[in-house]
Amino acid sequence: DTGVSQNPRHKITKRGQNVTFRCDPISEHNRLYWYRQTLGQGPEFLTYFQNEAQLEKSRLLSDRFSAERPKGSFSTLEIQRTEQGDSAMYLCASAARDIPYEQYFGPGTRLTVT
Amino acid sequence: AQSVTQLGSHVSVSEGALVLLRCNYSSSVPPYLFWYVQYPNQGLQLLLKYTSAATLVKGINGFEAEFKKSETSFHLTKPSAHMSDAAEYFCAVTPSGAGSYQLTFGKGTKLSVIP
Known about the structure:
The structure holds two protein chains of two kinds.
Chain A: E1 5-7, E2 10-13, E3 19-24, E4 31-37, E5 44-50, E6 53-57, E7 65-68, E8 75-79, E9 88-95, E10 104-105, E11 109-113
Parallel strand pairs in A: 2-11
Antiparallel strand pairs in A: 1-3, 3-8, 4-5, 4-9, 5-6, 7-8, 9-10, 9-11
Chain B: E1 2-5, E2 10-14, E3 19-21, E4 24-27, E5 31-38, E6 44-50, E7 56-58, E8 64-68, E9 73-78, E10 87-95, E11 104-105, E12 109-114
Parallel strand pairs in B: 2-12
Antiparallel strand pairs in B: 1-4, 3-9, 5-6, 5-10, 7-8, 8-9, 10-11, 10-12
């Protein structure tokens, strides 16, 4: 069990560019979550997958954001036409079927939009 | 709907002193409650959780927290602070029962430990 991994760890992009982040959950965890954390704030929920199905999306997830988990394993989060306000830490978490409320977090991807 | 209020964005304690980090929650249904710790440039690590069993829960690194329904509180304590406890601490809530178990976090409390 290597824990939740996220790549890249850091991303600097120019406004208007598209970016994609990857999350690999703990093996056999069927639940996967994306959160966003801005400076001085706690993480905020973005979206949730159970297996490959995206079951919930926050109002924070604008049309420029899309997330996928095509085979129920890794997930990607894409941001199109990035804006400076998208600068944040993007955190991924996973949870097991038998303890669904216990989420384990990855190290995060820090996005800076210039 | 759920919400979490953490009193004190920054708490300083001397090494060896009691650590007390405050968390109050609001939830329309019975909650599950969590404390997470975050070190600089890292993700969140689960310290402890309350899931409607014992109201006093013990976690890793000597931390514990007590669920008080009447006060809607879930304060985090540690009898004796260590330098390695310096980090940011987040309290989080989710509704118990079936559902997504998405977490609602407080804004965090940064703990400094003075040698």
